[in-house]
Amino acid sequence: MYGLVTIRNIEQFTGKTVDRKWSLFHHYPLSFQKINGAYFYTDKNGVIIPFNKDDEIIFDRIIGKNEKTEERKVSDNIYNPHGKDIRFISSDYKELFTVPDGGYITITHGDGEQLIRKCKYHGECHVDIGSNHTYHICEFAEKMERNGSTYAPCPEPEIVAGYMITDRMPVGEKVFVLAHNPNAAQPWVTWQSRNDRSGYDFGHYWSDRSDARRDYFLRADSERTGKVYDHTKLYKQPKNRNDAR
C-alpha cells in the first residue's frame, strides 16, 4: 500500500474501527512505504522518517501483517532514496520514456555514431548523463534536437570480454567501438568489426580514457579517408586532456 493514509481510509480499507490513540495516523495525512522490510513515512513537513519499533507494532495492528505494501529497493543515490525512474521528454515536454535509476540510454547522432550512457536520477526534472553531465530533462531534449540526435532506452549494454561498449562509430562496412572495463589493467579498448559479421578484433588497449577516445576517432577517420594511422605513435605524444568528452 502506498499513498495518503488517514484514520478514515484505514477504517474503510480494513472494515474495522480504529482507536484514535493511533495519533500518528490521525493528526494529518501522510505517505508511507516499506523499504527492504522497514517502514517509513513522510510527515506533514515532507520529512522522511523511519518507524520506530512501537510505530511498526501499531502499523501492523492497523493494516495487518498480510497487507501488501509496496517494496522498493533502497537506492545508494542520495537524490533518489525511493528508487524513482528517470523521465525523458521531448522539447515540448511530451514524455517519451523512462529508464530506471542507473539504467542506460543510446544517443544516436546524425552521422550514425551511437553513445551508450549511464543515467542517474538527480531530481524530478534533472538527470546525470555519463560521468559528469547534469541536465534539466528539457535542456537535454533541446540539445539533442539542435544536434539532430535521437535518444532511446538501452535495456542491455553489450559486454565483450568484460568490457562494456560505450561508443560505436560506423564507417562504410566497418564499425569501430570504444569499450570500458574498470577492473582491467588497461580499462579502455577500441576494436573494429564489420557489418556482415559479429565479433570484434584488432584491439588497441589503453590506460587513459582520453587516449582511447582519440584512438577511436583516429581509427574511424583513417578508414573514412584512407590515410595510414599508426596508433603506437600516440604513446609518444603528450596528452591533451581536452580531447575527453
Task: Itemize the secondary structure elements and their pairings.
Layout: E1 3-5, H1 7-14, E2 30-35, E3 38-42, E4 48-50, H2 53-63, E5 86-89, E6 95-99, E7 104-108, E8 114-121, E9 126-129, E10 133-136, H3 137-147, E11 150-154, E12 159-160, E13 163-171, E14 174-180, E15 188-194, E16 201-206, H4 209-225
Antiparallel strand pairs: 1-2, 2-3, 3-4, 5-6, 7-8, 7-11, 8-9, 8-13, 9-10, 12-13, 13-14, 14-15, 15-16
Please compute the radius of gyration using only Cα atoms: 25 Å
Summed up, the domain count is 3
Average pLDDT score? 79
- Residues in helix, %: 10-25%
Distance separating the two termini: 44 Å
Stretches where pLDDT is under 50 for at least 5 consecutive residues are: 1-5, 20-30, 65-74
SSE-based structural type: alpha+beta
Total strand segments: 16
Q: What gross morphology would you assign?
A: globular
Count of DSSP-assigned helices: 4
Question: What does the main sheet amount to?
Answer: 10 strands, antiparallel
Strand composition percent: 25-35%
H/E series: EHEEEHEEEEEEHEEEEEEH
Describe the model.
The protein has helices at residues 7-14, 53-63, 137-147, 209-225; strands at 3-5, 30-35, 38-42, 48-50, 86-89, 95-99, 104-108, 114-121, 126-129, 133-136, 150-154, 159-160, 163-171, 174-180, 188-194, 201-206. The protein is globular, with a radius of gyration of 25 Å. It has three domains: 3-63, no CATH class; 77-155, no CATH class; 158-245. Strands 7, 8, 9, 10, 11, 12, 13, 14, 15 and 16 form a ten-stranded antiparallel sheet that branches. A four-stranded antiparallel sheet has the order 1-2-3-4. The protein has four helices and 16 strands. The longest helix is centred in the last third of the chain and has 17 residues, at 209-225. A hairpin with a 5-residue loop joins β7 (104-108) and β8 (114-121). With 245 residues, the protein is an alpha+beta fold.
